[in-house]
Structures are given as C-alpha cells and as structure tokens.
Amino acid sequence: MNPVSLAFGLSLIATSTFAQATVTSCDREVNFDTVPKAAVSNDVNLTEMMLVLGLADKMVGYTGISGWKTLDEEMRAGVEALPELSAKYPSKEVLVGADADFFFAGWNYGMKVGGEVTPETLAPFGINVYELTESCIHIGEKPKVSMDDMYTDILNLGKIFGVEAKAQELVAGYKAELTAFSASLTTGDPLRVFVYDSGEDTPFTAGRYAMPTALIEAAGGRNIMDDFEKSWATVTWEEVVERNPEVVVIVNYGNVTAEEKRAFMMNNPAFADMDAVKNDRFVVLEYVEATPGPRNIKAVQKLATGFWGQ
Questions:
Q1: Is-contact 269 292, C-beta < 8 A?
Q2: Can you name the CATH fold of 3-9+16-176?
C-alpha cells in the first residue's frame, strides 16, 4: 500500500454534501461553513498531507519549500500544477494576494509567535487557519508527541474538506501497517538515539514534542532528548556526549548533506568515545519523513532497519 503515490496528480475527492465542520486547532475551535476552495499549505510535509487526501484542486499554491528543501520525484509530480507562492514563510500580503481562504501551517512551520502571519492576523481577510498538531507546544501545553498527532491532522483535514471517508481510510491503513510491522519486529533494550538535524557549534535536535521521538519509540529506540521539554530546538554537544547515543539519526535537507553531517561527527575528536561514532551507526531520514506526514510509517520502518537490521 502506498497512499501517497495513489493520490498524486489526481483528485480522489468523492462528491458529497458538506455539513458544517468544527475542528480543534491547538487551543481554538475553528468552524467551516463551506469547503475551502483556495487553500495554501506551508512546508513539504503539510503539503503532502493535502496531496495524499486528493486536495490539489482545492489549492491555489504552497509556500516554504524551495527556500530550504528540495522536492523528490513524488512531490514534484503532486505539485506540478500549483505555484510556489513564497520560497520561505509567506507574508500576509502573499496569502491575501492569492485570494486564499485557508492556510494549513504550524508554529515554526510557516507561522511565528508574534509574527505577521497568525490565525488572528489572517481572520479579517477571511482566511481560516488550521495548525499542525505537533507545533501546538509553541503556544501552550500538549501531551508528549505520538503518532496520533499525525493521524489527528489527516482526520481534521478530512473533516474540513468534506473527505472524511478518505481520511479515515488512510489513517486506518497507516495504523494497520504499523501494527503489522511492530508485530514482526524483534528488538532488544531500547537503543539510545540522538536526532541530528543541523548545526555544528550547537546541534538543533528533536525534543519531547517533535515527531522523531514517536518514530524512534515505534522503531524500538529512545530519544536521548525525550526529557527535553521542547519540540525542535538547540541543545549543547556536551549534553549529547554525556548521554552517549548508540545511534545518530540524521535529518537530511538543506545545503549541508547527510554525509557531511556524518563526517563532521565522525571526524570530531570530541565525539570519539561516543558509541554511535565508535561503531559508525547513523540512520538518515529525509525531512519529509522526520516531520509529521504520510511518510512517517515508512520512516519507522527505515529506523527499525537501521536499529536492528530488520
């Protein structure tokens, strides 16, 4: 089953009567009287959630991809008919100028706390915002990250766009695939894992509320920063060395390649006694796999292969 590729290039929306939808978005209840017809998504993983639901024909564009990331073949095929409205975070003028009526983004995924693009600043222009669940920690409390964060977003988008059956089918498929894989997985004690996103002076990593923590746990590991009360944030190398990861998960995107990140760690004398470095144990996740989205199940399987050779 590959629900991502099935949806690219085609709209799989079944015609149905749309009833008013209300969804919870972080700390807000958001009401939709009609299906959005001019949606914009920010970032590669959020855009892929829209595409996997067959919503390309409800979109007027996307933002926040080419300024940091490159699209693989699947994603290029899915968005070829859509313009990129902004290479990085969009301005309010960009969204208003596109006549958008919906913005799917998150905190630090297209919006900044106190920035010019927020649910409150877009509301006067008739632009409803749905916030990525993983990102809600930036504006309030939430439980530790879990796979349910991604499932929730798919299901809420299904309600918003009147494709609930499709959303439920996708989530049921993801859950079944993960359950079957977990049942076949043989593990030992949870491996100590560090997520290396970027940065040489100080590493940017995934904390308690970032999706890799859930992915690592599903693959039989433990994020050594799972007590770090942040989502994606910076720590010190001293903390990493002290916690001595057995495996390093590299998030691959941007101008510094995964191999360059690995070489930096392998060649730095400060890391020479780290188990992951001594044993050259690195696993690479693409950005779109490491952030909430349809490729999270594949990411768990990739991690498990790197952890346990399965």
A1: no
A2: Rossmann fold (3.40.50)
